[in-house]
Specification:
Order of helices and strands: EEHEEEHEEEHHEE
Helix content: 10-25%
Shape: globular
Largest sheet: 8 strands, mixed
Strand content: 35-45%
Structural class: alpha+beta
Length: 199
């Protein structure tokens, strides 16, 4: 069954910075409540969603071009929907930024093919039965340990490691009653820039 949603195509609106193509993506995750897993450790209950590519046996997290008419967060949400068929709550503080070469230009030494990726974490709230790139990308829920083994790129493993450390430290602090999440609001100062102010 075809998805009623349509994936964006082309690079007419693609953002670039210093000859690098800007991309955004996320690590979709969920905390499982398996009856056979009695552990209180959140990391043991954590699963992440990875996607496959045609003709490959390894996996990646959803990511793709960040376009001029969207924020990095919006691009990450869109890519998760198009490539993995999931929606959720995106943690708007990025896990980090990585500079890497696109898969098609891994062996090239030219400036073309360079990318700068912004990665976020997204708590999945909805899994669609049909999604725009379902014919191209399969999806698979895996443990964090399996994700480290299956992941195609070192930079995505680094993003996963940062996500796990952030989740674990926030969970541990929250359990002890010491963690109070900072409240942020986004104030648009001009059409071109945003300032983050504490509420």
């Amino acid at each position: 069954m075809a998805s009623p949603l349509v994936a964006r195509k082309g690079r007419d609106l693609q953002r670039y910075e210093n000859h690098l193509r800007l991309v955004a993506g996320c690590i979709p995750y969920k905390i499982t409540e398996e009856p056979d897993n009695q552990s209180d450790d959140v990391i043991n209950k954590l699963q992440v969603l990875m996607i496959s590519s045609p003709g490959r046996h390894d996996f990646v997290f959803p990511k793709g071009g960040w376009e001029k008419d969207e924020t990095a967060c919006e691009a990450a949400r869109r890519e998760a929907l198009e490539e993995a068929g999931v929606r959720g709550i995106l943690h708007e503080i990025e896990l980090g930024q990585w500079v890497f070469r696109s898969k098609s230009s891994q062996a090239s030494f030219s400036q073309e093919g360079g990318c700068k990726g912004y990665m976020f974490a997204m708590k999945v709230t909805e899994e669609l039965d049909c999604w725009p790139e379902q014919e191209v990308h399969g999806r698979k829920w895996v443990t964090v340990a399996d994700a480290f083994k299956l992941c195609r790129y070192d930079w995505m493993r680094e993003a996963l490691d940062l996500f796990v450390k952030r989740l674990y430290s926030n969970t541990m602090l929250s359990v002890r009653g010491l963690y109070e999440p900072t409240k942020f609001c986004f104030v648009k100062s001009t059409a071109a820039e945003q300032a983050i102010a504490l509420c």
